[in-house]
Design brief:
Length: 457
């Protein structure tokens, strides 16, 4: 009989907590909410030792400040467990994401990357544009795997190119294209969190996020094409044919993405589920039906179930970050020290552009210092009522989401930068320096589009 390892079965415990959270959505009860919070505290205790060093430090800081704010408030100790319940829904969404990735793998859509990137191009300038288009098209579903696959393909395709040029090209085109896809993807946790904070309608936010992504692509693809136009790509053979053969599969993929968006919008606007919950509950049924239509049901389940278990068992970093962040946010809201965070925003009231620039600088500065943008998002969530007094909910959502996502290619301890750093054998801060101008540019585009919506809502 094999030894029973608790760490291999944590997904069962987490699933129970997530199920209780679903019950609470339909049957709001303070006692149930406190029970979820108590279980959340247990989750933090279990996962703290296994979290990465950066997240341990963040978690400790968030707990320390949260405790300070709690002691300064009039909140009773018996109310504290509920403070850890606020972000359980976000954890539930993160745990469900592997199912969407699994149906993409089961349908072998990840091989589209090879076809799209493999066609002959005139030079690296044209390849830069193609790389970004590919990432924007496929990363919405493929998520991190799209970056890993495309980086491997580009490494092989650019073998004959100087190492410094090759590494810079890959670090820029894949990470920037990846972030452009996140701007509008309903599966992106930063976008979902911003909507969770503001309560905005995703259908109203989506066109503006697509506009930010389109403008970001136009600017960056143009600059990338100019920057790498003098460098040639080693000639490829046989790739053009595969690209033509995969056009139908690319169309299928795009149709599936559009249908998923329609399902999410239906649940949010017709059934009136919260956006975060709509995305979460739509993932598995949609992925399963998709696999059945592709006649890949068995492959989907064989890939999906082990992947879901493995990734749910290893939510260490997200559990430590999100649940301690929930504690901090709730404690801050109950503390008189909230006034000190509100004062700068109050001072800027009547100057929406300055508020927007302040938020962009805060996201960028905190990210470069190693603070996860989700943590910064949570801090702004603590003063969301004040912010929504200054900015409409749609405007604030676009601002928070675009400024947060713009920092993804420049986050030295972010997962995508870490994966790229290891794959390219490149210092993460070299990647940050390469992508910092893009992060500033994309954030400013988010500010510009937010400013435009200010006069429409």
């Amino acid at each position: 009989m094999r030894n029973f390892k608790m760490a291999d079965h944590l997904y069962i415990f987490y699933s129970i907590v997530f199920l209780l959270n679903v019950v609470h959505i339909f049957w709001a009860d303070s006692m149930l909410y406190s029970i979820i919070g108590i279980l959340g505290i247990v989750m933090v205790v279990i996962n703290f030792p296994g979290a990465d060093r950066v997240f341990k430090i963040l978690g400790f800081i968030l707990l320390a400040f949260g405790t300070f704010f709690f002691l300064s408030s009039d909140v009773k100790v018996t109310e504290v467990p509920a403070f850890f319940s606020g972000n359980v829904g976000l954890l539930f969404l993160i745990s469900m994401l592997p199912w969407m990735n699994s149906v993409v793998k089961a349908g072998r859509y990840n091989k589209l990357l090879q076809a799209l990137l493999g066609g002959n191009v005139k030079g690296m300038g044209s390849l830069y544009v193609r790389s970004e288009v590919t990432m924007v098209s496929l990363a919405a579903f493929l998520n991190l795997s799209s970056a890993a696959i495309s980086q491997d393909l580009l490494r092989n395709q650019l073998k004959g190119v100087k190492s410094k040029v090759r590494k810079g090209f890959i670090a820029m085109s894949t990470l920037r294209g990846y972030s452009l896809a996140l701007l509008w993807s309903p599966l992106e946790i930063l976008l979902a969190t911003s909507i969770f904070i503001t309560g905005a309608n995703y259908l109203q936010v989506l066109p503006w996020m697509l506009l930010v992504a389109l403008l970001g692509f136009i600017f960056d693809a143009g600059l990338g094409k100019m920057m790498f136009r003098k460098h040639q790509v080693p000639e490829q053979t046989g790739a053009a044919k595969s690209l033509g053969e995969n056009k139908k599969r690319l169309l299928e993929f795009i149709v599936a993405l559009v249908l998923f968006l329609i399902v999410v919008v239906f649940l949010a606007n017709v059934v009136h589920f919260a956006f975060l919950f709509s995305v979460t509950v739509a993932i598995f049924p949609f992925a399963f039906i998709w696999s059945v239509l592709m006649k890949r049901r068995k492959s989907f389940l064989n890939i999906g179930f082990p992947t879901w278990k493995q990734q749910t068992n290893h939510l260490n970093n997200f559990i430590v970050l999100l649940l301690t962040l929930s504690f901090l946010t709730e404690a801050l809201n109950a503390s008189p020290y909230l006034q000190y965070l509100q004062d700068p925003i109050v001072a800027l009231k009547g100057h929406p552009l300055l508020i927007m620039l302040f938020i962009q600088v805060a996201f960028l500065g905190m990210t470069v210092l190693g603070v996860h943008p989700l943590a910064t998002m949570g801090i702004f969530g603590g003063v969301s009522q004040l912010l929504m007094g200054a900015l409409p909910s749609v405007t604030l959502t676009i601002l928070l989401a675009s400024c947060a996502i713009a920092t993804v290619p420049s986050a030295p301890y972010g997962l995508i930068v870490t994966i790229t750093s290891v794959g390219l054998r490149m210092n993460p801060y070299q990647i940050v320096l390469r992508n910092l101008p893009y992060s500033i540019m994309c954030g400013l585009l988010g500010v510009a589009v937010s400013l435009l919506t200010l006069y429409l809502y």
